[in-house]
Amino acid sequence: xxxDENLLLFLILIFSWAEYLWELYLSLRQLKIYKTNQTxxxxxxxxxxxxxxxxxxxxxxxxxxxxxxxxxxxxxLTSIILYNRWISVAWQKSENIASILNINLxxxxxxxxxxxxxxxxxxxxxxxxxxxxGTFVLEEKHGFNKQTVGFFIKDQIKSLVLSLVITLPIVSxxxxxxxxxxxxxxxxxxxxxxxATMILLTIxxxxxxxxxxxxxxxxDGSLRKGIENLASRLNFPLSQVYxxxxxxxxxxxNAYFSGLFGAKRIVLFDTLLQKHDEVKNVTTGxxxxxxxxxxAHELGHWKCSHIYKSIALTEVxxxxxxxxxxxxxxxxxxxxxxxxxxxxxxxxIGLIVVLQLILAPYNSLLSxxxxxxxxxxxxxxxxxxxxxxxxxxxxxxxxxxxxxNLDYPxxxxxxxxxxxxxPTLLHRIENIKSQTTGAKID
Length: 442
Description:
Blueprint: H1 5-36, H2 50-83, H3 86-100, H4 108-141, H5 149-180, H6 185-208, E1 215-217, H7 222-233, E2 238-244, E3 255-258, E4 264-269, E5 275-277, E6 282-284, H8 288-303, H9 306-328, H10 333-336, H11 347-358, H12 360-387, H13 391-404, H14 413-419, H15 425-435
Parallel strand pairs: 2-4
Antiparallel strand pairs: 1-2, 3-4, 5-6
Helix pairs in contact: 1-2, 3-4, 4-5, 5-6, 6-9, 7-8, 8-12, 8-13, 9-11, 12-15, 13-15
């Protein structure tokens, strides 16, 4: 079978729309549950009242409808861009800019950087209406948004600049490796990407994250002592415990640990700490024992080496992707399909076509299995927390966090299997119950 550029483009669009329609079907299944199920599950009745359950249901409904509109916009825009061959137009515009700057058109790396800047700015602009709506309408309506307009603008500009500062050098080196690496370029590209990823993961906690949020050491007290005792009990290489002022951005709460090698830091969102709102007469967050239960779960990820397992799987996947790229990127059909004249085959375009379009079915299948693996890791971390004698505290914390974050606890099975990297609240509670008679760790 001979495939020309029109047929290849048609196949790419067919898969894109097939995946979109599948995900739309799942979203409509979940939306139906939001709209019709108004009964609190038995396992949550002791800690969840009708008011909070209804708030979660309405929040879930609004998020689902917003997601449906946003995804239709995204697939429509992508289809228009591909059908009209606007990617080649963007490359031509990049060459025009290079000419204005007196840059030789043979300088592919520089033109690729101009192209990537153009694409990044385009995505930033066309997605901004949804970013604004999601923050100042959807999240605001349900009481989560804490950002001022000034804070939001500053945050968006920081994200944009940081994206370019990180992306452009990596893209430049990657293109250089592909052009000069010879027959072994796939190996060199993989090694470079691995090193770059490790560097970014290492510097993120101390260099990148503080650009967006303020981190302060947790003050001395019973909570800090409890965290240090827990870390010591497990020989966890704790260097510091920080509180991050997440409340300046959102009322959502979280906790995590960071640091790939050597000493690690634990980070608690200030919204995770228990506090009472005198005006609304509501208490949010978790008490100290519940926070220790949450951290026991996070330390379970460390103890079970989930981070390193995920990195290893990511590296294997990268090697497979780059190998496929090395096999396909010299095919001129990939470039003429997007409107490039015969003989013009920019490396960055080859990367985009192969890794994002041609391998889209593989990426979707891999994403599904990665999501399932993530849920398995979450169950293992919960089991570890239970083995440390925190079943009651973890269960209580999960329910409180679900309530504070307006997490509707009932999900369609297909929707959850496709989308959820974490088990649902009800599944986690059921699992904790089944683990309460398990072995204890001293």
